[in-house]
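so my prof wants the structure for this chain in the tokens format not the other one, which i didnt know existed until like an hour ago. anyway here's the sequence
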Amino acid sequence: MKLKSIVVSLAVVVPSWAHAQNAVTNADTQEVIETIRGDEAKTQAYCDSIKLGDQIELADQKGENTEELNRKMDQLAAKLGPEYGALMEDYRDIDPSTPAGQEAGARIQTTIEALNKLCGPTARRSGRD
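here's what i got, hopefully its the right format
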């Protein structure tokens, strides 16, 4: 699954304070992990978003309309909460050519890997597109 499709879909839940953040901190990433890990409904929504992201990617490759799938992704994104949306927005805005961007990207990727583990061994591991 491509992380890009999740990031785009999650942009709708980003609060305005996320744009004011200059760097992704360990505290930010830990908050997201604990928020999703500590809520069964959010954990399920995250795992469902991974599966749905795979479906969106496949439909895109086939040239199929993904409007309904993206609508479902938006619904799942809303369930994950503003902290996750803000983190994904920050991820999208990172400049990977800078040391700070590489560090922030690594923190977020580690967070995604930790969340993927909540979904079991069949969860695909995403990389930055």
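also thought this was worth mentioning. The two ends are 10 Å apart (CA to CA).
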